[in-house]
Amino acid sequence: MSRVDVVIVNWNGLRYLPECLEALSQQVFQDFQVWFVDNGSSDGSVNWVREHYPHIRVIANNVNRGFAAANNQAIRCGSAPFVATLNNDAVPEPKWLAEMVKAMESHPTVGMVASLMLFYSAPSIIDSAGIAVDRLGFAWNRLGGLPTHSSEREPTSVFGACAGAALYRRAMLDQIGLFDEDFFAYLEDVDLAWRAQWAGWDCLYVPTARVLHRHSATAGEGSPLKDYLLARNKVWLVAKNYPVQDLAIRLPLILAYDFVSAAFKSLYHKHASALRGRLEGWLKFRAMLAKSRSIDRKRSTREMFL
After folding, report:
1. Would you say the pTM of this structure is higher than 0.85?
2. How much is the average pLDDT of 150-165?
3. What is the DSSP string of the chain?
């Protein structure tokens, strides 16, 4: 059995796969099994992987099941003690996996390891240095848009890991559950991180685990699909994970911030997808709120982030 299951979800990403998979083959740490989950691609991705990388285990879906469900398929099929998720448009440096495994093995309470993700087209600029969450429950890529010298040089505790290039402890996933498949794509990693934090697991950002990333190469930045999913999932994220005792107090602020954000997105991108996403999110708010009852909360609100 390998020590790491590396999961790559793909949807018509053939143009990115040669560089991504070649970078994986050059990893210093080699005790891993790659799981390639294809979400109904029409560009020949599955046949290409089977021809050029026959040792990779392929799961071929007939339809696009979404990022969350596709990752879960491979996680359930694997058995390694650690699970790495890697976007098909990401190119990891040779020490990426080794640095993450070393960090996790050195800290038994760490259930997540975040990479230093850099923009592929501008490697001196940070795409993500882990996930941050503010007092109103809204998440963003930590240090995103800042130069690389803004990053810490040593491993640092952060809220969560961007699933575009992350390492998870299987024991943690067994305890808190996998990605929420209702999210389909976007913010499912924040939801997972939030549930992990509530359960007492920590996340470590490891700046020596570096990845070049073509940001939003699959759905497209500002696309109607991405704006819709982000808008809807932001509402569901708060419904599931925000401290219930604080929700009633801060809900007016959350609603105001949410409305302004959705309106700005709609004006800026010249389509109403963000508003439609918010509407669906709030219409199904109570259903997501019901999920919060099953979350194991071992940490206090103060310990979380408030």
Report:
1. yes
2. 97
3. --SEEEEEEESS-GGGHHHHHHHHHT-S---EEEEEEEES-SSSHHHHHHHH-TTSEEEEESS---HHHHHHHHHHH---SEEEEE-TTEEE-TTHHHHHHHHHHH-TTEEEEEEEEEETTEEEEEEESSEEE-TTS-EEETTTTSBGGGS-SS-EEESB--TTEEEEEHHHHHHH-S--GGG-SSSHHHHHHHHHHHTT-EEEEEEEEEEEE-TTTTT-TT-HHHHHHHHHHHHHHHHHHS-HHHHHHHHHHHHHHHHHHHHHHHHHHTSSHHHHHHHHHHHTHHHHHHHGGGS---S-HHHHT-
